[in-house]
Amino acid sequence: MAILKPWCGVWTPATMSAFLAQNVVPKLEKCLDTMNLNPRENKKYEEWYACMSWMGMISPDTMASIVTKYFFPRWYAALCHWLDSPRVILNEVKLWYREWDQRIPPQIRDFPTIKENLRRGMVALMESSQGLRVSSGPPPPPLAQAVPPPPPPVAMRPNMGVPMNSHMSLKEVLERMAAQHDLTHIPQRDRLKEGRQVYWFGTQSIYLDRNIVYVLDTQTFSWRPVGMEELLQLAGVK
User: Fold this and answer.
1) Which of 116, 80, 118, 73 has the alpha carbon at shortest distance from 99?
2) What DSSP element (H or E) covers 206?
3) Is 116:174 a contact under the CB 8 Å cutoff?
4) What gap in Å lies between CA 55 and CA 15, rounded to an integer?
5) Which residues of 16-141 form beta strands (DSSP E)?
6) In whole angstroms, what is the distance from residue 228 CA to residue 76 CA?
7) Average pLDDT score over residue span 156-182
């Protein structure tokens, strides 16, 4: 990389991009595809940091695609295999998940496929904590394109407020909020919290209890009350 950087001001962006795509990207793909994910055998994950060091020369959308295709399938399989092992210590797996969550560079963190894969891992952790096997279900749906959509113009962004009236239930308010902001709001399969249905609200897991919304905190893996404005922010509404 040190050899190539001086050429950034000499080659045209198109020439540099083509060179990297042909000579560097395949090596990054192979590196992530063969990296040992076992934390007992590979404690530093130097291969990961070596690949991420190309951020800046490799565009964020290309790097997000590489990580989505060559890292996350193996990462998710390793996570599920670990969770389903007879002697699993759940806190160790949670720590491993958090460490990987923190390793994702900010330049690609908000890409839809990156967020979706992290969400899938979090769901596997929660299902395992409920005694469910996580590697025996149907294959996950195809991931969306890695490139995030451009943000809407400021003038077109929806209002954070949600029209409410005294006749609307909390569930109806959430449904209206989800529809207004184009967020998924559906029940999660076979997931209950204290006997109450758990729902997706965008990327967030929520349930309702006595007119209070509870959200799953992905840092502590615990449930906490949440207000409507914060819930929208957690779901990615700016």
Assistant:
1) 118
2) strand 204-209
3) no
4) 17
5) none
6) 31
7) 68
What is the tens place of the pLDDT at every residue in 69-109?
Answer: 999 999 999 999 999 988 889 899 999 999 999 999 999 99
* Residue linked to tokens 């699993």: 88
pLDDT at 15: 67
Angle 96-101-104 (CA atoms, 0-180°, nearest 5)? Answer: 130
With contact defined as beta carbons under 8 Å apart, do 125 and 92 qualify? no
For residues 6 and 93, give the distance between their C-alpha atoms in angstroms, rounded to a whole number.
42
Q: How many residues does the chain have?
A: 238
Q: How far apart are CA 117 and CA 66, in angstroms?
A: 13
| Encoded amino acid at 35, one letter | M
Are 94 and 221 in contact by the 8 Å Cβ rule? The answer is yes
Query: 56-59 — which CB contacts under 8 Å span 24+ positions?
Result: 57/1, 57/4, 57/5, 57/8, 57/16, 57/20, 57/24, 58/20, 58/24, 58/25, 58/28, 59/17
pLDDT band at 64 (very low <50, low <70, confident <90, very high): very high
- In the chain, what are the domain boundaries? 11-130, 170-235
Of 57-66, 114-123, 135-144, 227-236, the range with the lowest mean pLDDT is 135-144
User: CB–CB of 63/55 below 8 Å?
Assistant: yes
Strands 204-209 and 222-225: unpaired
Q: Considering only the C-alpha atoms of the chain, give the largest distance between any 2 of them, rounded to a whole number of Å.
A: 67
